[in-house]
Amino acid sequence: MEAPIIFPTILEELKESIKIEQENKKYLLEIKIISETMTLTIFNIEEFGYFLYARKFTLNELKEIHPVFMGLNSFKEFLEFLKDLSEIKKLSIKQKDNKLNIEFKVEYLLKEKTIEIELFHEKIQLELVIKELCNEIKIIKGKIKKDNKTELEKENKEIKKEIDFLKNENIKLKEEINQIKNILKPIHKKYQQKYSVIMNQNELDFIKSAIESRINKKIKKLKKLYQAKEDGDDANIFHSKCDNINNTITVIKTKGNRRFGGFTSQVWDKKSDFKKDENAFLFSLDKNKIYKIKSGREVQAIWCGDNYGPIFGRCWGGIFGNSHDICICKNPIKQKTLYTYEFNPNSTYDYSGDESALSECGSEKSSTYIDDYEVFQIIF
Question: What values do phi and psi take at 178, rounded to 5?
């Protein structure tokens, strides 16, 4: 028969958990006090999610379990009693026949040394737990999604602002670059004119046009390889700077201020032999003329030798014997050894009766004093 319910004078609302470890097992004793009822629940911590044990008591029911509880005036006193027992390890939980029994080891002058409270086993409804967890996860996901969306929108606004700022900066930068270009144009033009000590920009454009019409490629730039007065008046220095580089211009200036030279797409080296070049030609900057190779003479466009600088063409016969259209010897400035042979009818290049096409002498074999000469690489 159920004992009559006695309502405590003060309504209590309390929840406490006590951890109990024994025989390598861990239990959690949960006591929940609401008004006149106390719920006692035991969880197996290591196997939580599979089962739990629980039972509800009124204060009178608790008193009837054992005489030791008769003097209790509230559930709080019972809770303090359990805490004390737990601290001195007088509280234990044992599993028996699919049930858990809670033992209170009390040391009073009683015949019974232990008290057992039998709790009823309740299956946890995993489906409900999973459903509740899923709902909770869904709520959390929704919150995260909302927070992320708000954060992303904020970041997108900042990125758009940054992009607009960079666009404006890019416009300003382009304007500044154009201003710098306009400032540099005359400087660049002046530099180009001084880049060669022998020819000016208009004369360079004249030669570039002649090269592009033969090679059928657009010239990108010129690279200065060698200058006799600057680098040293010696054939070995010329070869060290100019050998094995194709598409070169040689520009010569004499003491009498005559300026001429030649172009070859072949490379210079020290092998002492002629080289064929259908694209080669000579030119006069003073007369603004181009002199092409005579038909069939392309095999003797240039001649290479270790003791010579640039040599163009081959001429034979006449009172001076065999020579070249242009011949720069080992030390042309020191030894005054620059020869031209444009007067000879057996020349490689076609001067069309112009007896002084290159040098100022106009004799059959003209030896003249050289002031300086330069070699440039053409880069397409």
Answer: -65, -40
Right CATH number for 13-124 from 2.170.210.20, 3.40.710.10, 1.25.40.20, 3.30.70.660? 2.170.210.20
Q: Look at the alpha carbons of 122, 125, 130, 136 in this order and tell me if their dihedral is positive or negative.
A: negative
Listed in sequence order, the residues at least 6 apart from 360 whose beta carbon sits closer than 8 Å to its beta carbon are 254, 256, 258, 366, 368
In the predicted model, is pLDDT for residue 45 greater than 90?
no
Cα–Cα distance measured from residue 356 to residue 291, given in angstroms and rounded to the nearest whole number: 12
pTM higher than 0.70, yes or no? no
3-state secondary structure of 66: coil
Contacts of 341 (CB under 8 A, 6+ apart): 313, 315, 320, 323, 324, 325, 326, 327, 347, 364, 365, 366
Residues forming a β-bridge with 22: 25
Residue position matching structure tokens 């010579």: 308
CA–CA dist 298, 135 (Å, integer)? 92
Q: Which helix H or strand E contains 29, and what residues bound it?
A: strand 25-34
Would you kindly state where each structural domain of the chain is located, as residue ranges? 13-124, 126-195, 201-379
User: Looking at 98-107, 254-263, 318-327, which range is the least confident one?
Assistant: 98-107
| Mean pLDDT, range 256-266, rounded to an integer | 94
